[in-house]
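Dear colleague,

Thank you for sharing your sequence with our group. We've completed the structure prediction you requested, and as agreed, I am returning the results in plain text so they can be pasted directly into your records. Please verify that the sequence below matches your submission; if there's any discrepancy, let me know and we will rerun it promptly.
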Amino acid sequence: MGFSAGGGYDAYSRLIGRHLQKHIPGNPSVIVDNMAGAGSIIAANHIFNAAPKDGTVIGNISGQIILEQLFANPAVQYDLGKFRYLGVPIGETYLLLLTRKSGVTKFDELLGAKSKQVTLGGIPGSTVEQGPILLRDLLGANIKVVSGYKGTADIRLAIESGELDGFLNSWESTKITSWDKVKSGEWLILAQLGDNPITELPATNVPTIPQIAKTEEQRQLLRFGAAAPNQFGKVYVVPSAVPQDRSAALEAALTKTFVDKEFLADADKGKLEIVPVSAQQVQKLVTD
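Please find the predicted structure tokens below.
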């Protein structure tokens, strides 16, 4: 699992880990191991190059790291197109979250000569960092990005201590980890990086990509840079060298887990939404 404990990726992997084994032939034990760093690039490198190729290791990485490969990041030692995909529990839409203490209450207040600067935490290789950079460089938002965090749990601690004004996080993870802060208004949602508004948001009139972007070029860059890759954000993979029968068994096990009644009840308790994206759909998104 390519992120630190206490965040959304961790919560989904631990939920899946509690139920996956009963759908795998032989019912093997499932252990969730956090291998945080570089927005899951470290985990992706490990799965692609060093992990056993016998189906005993499954990777949970971020779909967003496809951009690091496209931009020829020297840290990348994988080819995302050559993983064997198993599925995704849910696609994601990212939100710009700021504390009320930051003094900024609307996205437009970050734009223009009289804008106030806000400091956001970033996880290299992820939308948590790439999103703010896009907002800054494409739209001119007055954002300072502090990089180097291993997971959103670390960023939340930095926000609590006053080191940061906020961050970008997915709505799916925010519901799990920070619902009380959003609901109370302690944290404000200034923008959502998707084309369509999320109906569940406690705030109203939160602008989407078509509203914050001023040109078609900006809209397309935000869509391809922050929205599209997160439709397979929490993706589960194995190396392509895993024997076909074993990878097919793992894909089938994950698919069965996603419709398992006990799993869904457990997900509901943890406020984890399940809207699966199939392995075939992920492969098409990556190829396209």
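Summary note from our side: Residues 94-228 form a domain with the D-Maltodextrin-Binding Protein; domain 2 fold (CATH 3.40.190.10).

Kind regards,
the structure core
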